[in-house]
Specification:
Layout lengths: L2 E6 L5 E5 L16 E5 L5 H22 L3 H4 L5
Antiparallel strand pairs: 1-2, 1-3
Bound molecules: zinc ion (ZN).
């Protein structure tokens, strides 16, 4: 049974739930059925660009910080 991430369109609450075929999950916070379904893994293609950009920004910041800390330079950037 697949585990899905959902984000509630009504209140923005994000949660994971197991879903059976034919069942409709509801938001545990507000009981709304207006949910965006997001497969936990792998990352959805449409979102990967944003995530890659965010990771690059994070890596750039890490690289910048590593200029100040020699031990940090030996750690791989993630
Ligand atoms: Zn909700």
């Amino acid at each position: 049974m697949p585990l899905y991430d959902y984000q509630c369109q009504a209140c923005g609450h994000r949660f994971e739930t197991l879903t059976r075929a034919g069942s409709t999950p509801v938001c545990p916070r507000c009981n709304s059925m207006a949910l965006d379904k997001q497969i936990s893994a792998p990352v959805a293609p449409g979102k990967s660009k944003a995530i890659i950009a965010a990771n690059r920004a994070k890596a750039a910041r890490g690289g910048h910080l590593s200029n100040y800390s020699k031990p940090e330079q030996k750690k791989p950037l993630r």
